[in-house]
Write a structure and sequence with these properties.
622 residues, binds fe (ii) ion, 9-stranded mixed beta sheet, alpha/beta, 21 strands, single chain, 5-stranded mixed beta sheet
Length: 622
């Protein structure tokens, strides 16, 4: 049966299940007649951070949310092509043989057991007879960037570590079609170059990249010349070629090698050992080189396509400092970044690609209707819990709570925030993507000079060199930050406005590390980085009415239209998903109040939480 005959005469809606799995951040999503119904990462259900296994729980959730049985799924879309990935693995092994024997042997069992049998695995795990389709990795990223964007047409840029062979690509999205024009291929990869420095500076590859970006403002770009002279050749179009004499990832079990150590004057930093100026300079240098590549790529794709808007996805598109520079310096009038820019979002791209590209269905971007908004529903695509669900759980957990009206909840939370209390804020549907956006968030007062250390040490159990991020009323963003566009997904870093900055004395400038961060640099010190930058989330009333109302109430009480927003979890733990996760996290940390649905819980009123002994071992020692 042809695709057209399949669509003809069809009355029931078309359900497409998107899946990404087996590498990092497995996820599932459900697209019904082109509309995003549900999406979630597997880690939120299994409570295993960055879970890469088949997303059975996320699939189950998506079907439940869509009120579907497995038989109701018409297509399953998988976010990459396992056979092509396997081909890369084999070819790379043969290119470097016998050097890569150990890493080849290490990779083989999972390939032979699961990855090569993805189609069978999907059919069996989802208990579905639906047709399984595979999109290429960078096509999935591109589709996740363009199809939900508000633009009728846009230039597309995807940048990550590696998919099958591609490590970055660019192209054009128009109507319901995407055309990728060119790609850079493995082993030459901006994402893997950044990950090599993540590894070398002692952080975890695939999750510590944020830390490198946060560390960069402390450093000087002293290694930029060495990187550009020795490690990487960056062409005018932003594409790059790496000197593989310094890297081990193509064939070994590590990212970098002895030659890399010699080039930068020492071995890999031991994780958890103290950070020195050298790591800070390395972080700053690789960040500068990354920004150079990103800006050149953006300029190139602008030259080639002549488009006014740019959309981006892939792990490197989570580099919000680089994104901020493209907004300020790049040639595009608008940029839109997929909130789940990493591989989780590939599930969404694969499903939308099947709907628009394979099945040929049209697309109606929001800008075409005169309302500048995307199709991501604020990225609130995860599980939700009714007040009845929440109350049942709170009773079962033996919690002490008070049920209030929504206006009362908003006033009470704002009042406590103004009183420097730390609030667990659990409302509505869980976010899809790595950031908490006001559905599973911990909130604080950005004006407070003690908030940063209180939230780091008593809530997140870490001593961080990174400041927290602000959620600001969209209509007031210009008073606090040099940003003249929306940043609903916290994917843009912008300078803190000159008018609210504090100048540093020479003595304060000489401070080091955390000491430097602890000196108030503006009227909102908890969210101001040492280079006077901030990772901004703008909140619009239309998109997020309750969260907007909360920040507006905080503004009414204090004159400050922003709050500190950090993810609702502790170090090493995925963001909370259920009321039970939230209550346990609340009880184990120094949070003062939990606002969950229309229920308010104060820490002082709670009985001790039973059965919690193993928790510290599990989560604090990341
Ligand atoms: Fe990717």
């Amino acid at each position: 049966m042809s695709r057209d005959t399949l669509r003809e005469g069809r009355k029931s809606p078309m359900n497409i299940l998107g899946i990404s799995a087996y590498y990092h951040d497995s996820a599932a999503c459900l697209v019904r007649d082109g509309e995003l119904i549900a999406a979630a990462q597997e880690e939120r259900f299994t409570r295993k951070k960055h879970d890469h296994r088949f997303p059975a729980a996320a699939v189950e959730y998506c079907l439940r949310e869509a009120r579907l049985t497995p038989e109701g799924v018409d297509y399953v879309a998988f976010y990459d092509k396992p056979l092509q990935k396997f081909e890369r693995l084999l070819e790379t092994y043969l290119d470097y043989a016998p050097r890569g024997y150990r890493s080849f042997l290490k990779a083989m069992p999972l390939w032979l057991k699961e990855k090569l049998w993805t189609r069978e695995h999907i059919t069996k795990s989802c208990r579905t007879g639906a047709k399984v389709l595979f999109t290429e990795h960078h096509e999935s990223h591109a589709a996740s960037a363009f199809f939900p964007s508000p633009f009728k047409s846009a230039a597309i840029l995807t940048i990550d570590g590696v998919g099958e062979w591609a490590t970055s690509s660019w192209g054009l999205g128009s109507g319901n079609e995407i055309h990728l024009e060119a790609e850079t291929r493995f082993p030459h990869s901006l994402g893997l170059l950044y990950s090599a420095f993540t590894y070398y500076t002692g952080f975890k590859v695939n999750s510590g990249e944020y830390k490198v970006m946060g560390l960069a403002p402390y450093g000087e770009p002293t290694f930029v010349k060495t990187i550009l002279d020795e490690l990487v050749n960056v062409a005018e179009d932003g594409s790059l070629r790496l000197n593989m004499d310094y890297f081990e990832y193509a064939h070994g079990l590590t990212m970098t090698n002895g030659a890399f150590d010699r080039l930068f004057g020492g071995p890999v930093r031991k994780p958890e050992s103290s950070l020195t100026q050298r790591e800070m300079d390395l972080a700053r240098s690789i960040q500068d080189v990354t920004e150079l590549c990103m800006l050149r790529m953006a300029q190139h794709v602008h030259r080639e396509t002549g488009e006014k808007a740019l959309v981006m996805a892939g792990g490197v598109a989570l580099n919000c400092v680089g994104n901020g520079r493209i907004v300020r310096e790049g040639p595009f009038e608008h940029i839109w970044v997929q909130p789940a820019a990493g591989d989780a979002g590939g599930a969404l791209g694969a499903a939308l690609s099947v709907w628009h590209q394979y099945l040929g269905n049209g697309r109606c971007p929001e800008s075409a209707r005169g309302h500048y908004s995307d199709a991501m529903k604020g990225s609130f695509l995860g599980p939700r819990f009714s007040d009845d669900d929440v109350e049942r759980e709170l009773k079962r957990l033996g919690a002490s709570y008070q049920r209030v009206t929504e206006p009362c909840l908003i006033h009470e939370v704002a009042r406590r925030l103004a009183d420097e209390k730390v609030i667990g804020w659990f409302q509505g549907r869980m976010e899809f993507g790595p950031r908490a956006l006001g559905a599973r968030s911990i909130l604080g007062d950005p004006r407070s000079t003690k908030m940063q250390s209180v939230m780091n040490l008593k809530i997140k159990f870490r001593e961080s060199f990174r400041p927290f991020a602000p959620s600001v009323l969209c209509e007031r963003v210009g008073e606090y930050f040099d940003l003249d566009c929306d940043s609903p997904y916290m994917l843009l870093v912008a300078p803190v406005h000159q008018d609210i900055r504090h100048e540093m004395t020479a003595e304060q400038d000489r401070l080091f590390g955390i000491e430097k961060l602890n000196v108030p640099r503006s009227t909102i010190p908890a969210v101001t980085h040492v280079d006077y930058s901030a990772r901004v989330q703008t909140v619009r009333r239309e998109d997020h009415p309750q969260y907007h109302a909360l920040i507006a109430e905080f503004d009414r009480l204090t004159g400050c239209p922003l709050v500190v927003n950090t993810s609702f979890n502790v170090r090493g733990e995925p963001i909370v998903c259920t009321p039970e996760d939230a209550y346990r996290c609340f009880m184990r940390t120094g949070m003062d109040t939990l606002a969950i649905g229309n229920f308010l819980l104060d820490k002082a009123d709670q009985p001790a939480l039973a059965g919690d002994q193993d928790w510290q071992k599990e989560f604090q020692l990341d």
